[in-house]
Amino acid sequence: MKTVSARRPVENKPAKVRRRDREKTKAEILQIAFEEFAESGLLGANADAIAAKAGITKRLIFYYFNSKEELFIAVLEMAYGKMRLAEEDLHLATLEPEAAIRRLAEFTFDFHQANPEFVRLVAIENIHRGRHIQRSEKLTQMTRPIIGQIERVLAKGKSLGAIRPEIDAHELHVTLNALSIFSVANRHTFEAQFRWDMSSPEAKARRRREIAEVLWRYVRSDECSSAADRS
Amino acid sequence: MKTVSARRPVENKPAKVRRRDREKTKAEILQIAFEEFAESGLLGANADAIAAKAGITKRLIFYYFNSKEELFIAVLEMAYGKMRLAEEDLHLATLEPEAAIRRLAEFTFDFHQANPEFVRLVAIENIHRGRHIQRSEKLTQMTRPIIGQIERVLAKGKSLGAIRPEIDAHELHVTLNALSIFSVANRHTFEAQFRWDMSSPEAKARRRREIAEVLWRYVRSDECSSAADRS
DNA sequence: CCCGTAATTAACCCATTGGATAATTACAGC
DNA sequence: GCTGTAATTATCCAATGGGTTAATTACGGG
User: Which of A128, A193, A213, B36 has its CA at a distance of 20 to 30 angstroms from the CA of residue B231?
Assistant: First the structure.
């Protein structure tokens, strides 16, 4: 006895269903949502727009992800997951201390430059006080192994006397991320204030060198070590 | 002959008007709007809420500032203006190079820590790709004299041989701001990822020292200069 | 071939919210 | 005191946009 009144869709077009693949559909929604959230923020992103760009119905978004916020969390999880994957390709163990530190700096810088949407997403999540990242079990449990890599580099460098013993892996990681993320995240207000280009290839290259330099000079031990040739 | 129909407000309460001070009212709106925008972003901030908190009618907001976006621009102008004022209190000229650099670092750090709403506002404006700061004549013309101060410190330091000649004032400023802003702006995602406190007085004090250290080691000349006593 | 279930669609709902219209009130200058 | 004007209020409007209801369609297993 559910009965009767049920709304009838228009009866002319049978509306062919495009495909029938749960995982693929979810992945597509996630990708488009990632772009939308990174572009417009949590509030600015529009479910209708996401649906349109993904070529599906809005209802489908809520079918797979129950709400906008849960979709946002899923997007965060995906984005952070990708970063972690990238970090695994960093093999710092084999390098000498200075080379390892510079490589770490350049890798981080390159990653942020190549993934400005990711940086934007992180900024947006911070505007929301990290409320979603906290709610995500995946993300709170996903301890980032990058710290382990840094610790190993530091340990080696310290034992060789090339790196100051008081350097802390966490502090180093914060320092590097601050320098690297800033070039992407605060580009616009900085460029507006100083009419100073941060986006051209030359400016980026210079900044890249500068960050590696800052980092190395920060960690190296005081005994006037090799400044290496930075052409 | 506009005539007749005009909507009549309810006729029981004469609705006493609170005050009649253009500048004061505008200033109050600006202050509340600053808080709201910093808290909730451009889209999240609510005109009704601003009006309620300011104890006025929403219409008044649009009377003084024509639209939400213009209000946001006015808020940005005010916020940046305050920062510039604060920067003027920095007297670096009298200090020796190392002291000047450390003082600059600590001042910047303290300012951002003391004004997280400002940092949030800047982050929000960057999410909007600096579109408002660009539109504001006040802000695009407001060249920040802080660069001048930094240049003078560097010049003095270079002539004394204490600071490397290749250090650039702009790059230094970017570096310092990156380090300083990050501690406020990206606090939440970082804390969530590493379960690592960045908010306690101890953590802040440590970070403050660290940043000064990074900056000084970055600019000082290579001849193993005094590491000074950082107790 | 049939049928249950899961994927997908169409259409609707309604709270929120920038912004607008127009009345009202205070206040300064004559 | 009168009056023009600026400050302020009450009320309304239309669009936007999350989220929902229910119909429809594909598809795999018996």
Answer: A213
